[in-house]
Amino acid sequence: MSTYAIGDLQGCYEPLQRLLEKIEFDPAKDKLWFAGDLINRGPDSLKTLRFVKSLGDSAISVLGNHDLHMMAVYYGSKKPKNSDTFQDILAADDCDELMNWLRTLPLVHYDKSINTVMSHAGIPPKWSAKKSLKRATEVHEMLTSGDYVSFFENMYGNKQWKKSLEGNDRYRAIVNFFTRMRFCDASSHLDFEHKTTDSPDGYLPWYMWPDRKAENTRIVFGHWAALEGKTYTDNVFALDTGCVWGGKLSALRLEDEKWFRVSAKKK
Question: How many domains, the chain?
């Protein structure tokens, strides 16, 4: 049995099939971890989403910002962007079923047996894996409650975290950590603008701050394609290698930390 953590799919169905062939994935004994952003910007969002859902217990996925954005559009609180490519999902006969399934996915997955945690954007320096899971569960409970439409109506905004936050402000700040984080300052306040690898003044990539609470836990995350899979930090693995931008789709085998990659386009 092997466990593979895979970077942002973003509708790249064909490269995913080649990657699974390369790792000789067997759903009867292997497990896939998907780092979120299953859909959008790529060519086959519907096909990709249906496939990941069909894997059942053989796959675990966390929610990414694109997944949440599509749900916000579907539930009526957000207009689609010109760059969105998930119209095939919105028009599908099984759209409601797919959305209901997406709402059940967590923001954070933690496997204590291998001391590994996954979220789409990472783990904020001030939180341990245990604390991250607890905070993520707050949002998960809202998403699976009868008030989830209100969540999507209030999800957007550059809210910074404070322990005293309540209600939608609190959910929004938690979502920002787990789906939008790249750079933060010493207080774990986020910079929402910069997407390259050049740190703004006073900020560092979240995983480079000393004395992170989760530094003894292995972390796998996506979201940050500009890193090209490199963090230069022990126990922290960047899975997004820019498949949707013409780069590669990557899988990390968690048992031995061996990488497997395929190009975006079939050669």
Answer: 1
Residue 72: CATH number of its domain = 3.60.21.10
- Tell me the pLDDT tens digit for each residue of 71-124: 999 997 788 999 999 999 999 999 999 999 999 999 999 999 999 999 999 999
Q: How far apart are CA 101 and CA 205, in angstroms?
A: 32
Q: Is the pTM of this model over 0.90?
A: yes
Q: How far apart are CA 136 and CA 177, in angstroms?
A: 10
Which domain does 163 fall in, by range? 3-263
- Could you tell me which residues come within 8 angstroms of residue 80 by beta carbon, excluding any fewer than 6 positions away? 73, 86, 87
Sign of CA dihedral 6, 98, 121, 31: negative
What confidence tens digit (pLDDT) does each residue in 171-225 have? 999 999 999 999 999 999 999 999 999 999 999 999 999 999 999 999 999 999 9
**Which residues fall within 8 angstroms of residue 114, CB to CB, at 6 or more apart?**
3, 218, 254
Long-range contact set of residues 257-265: C-beta below 8 Å, sequence gap at least 24: 259/229, 260/4, 260/19, 260/22, 260/23, 261/19, 262/15, 262/18, 262/19, 262/22, 263/15, 264/12, 264/15
Residue in 116, 100, 132, 104 with CA at minimum distance from that of residue 206:
132
Which residue has 């204590």 as its token pair?
112
Tell me what percent of the chain is helix, strand and coil, each rounded to the nearest 5: 35, 15, 50
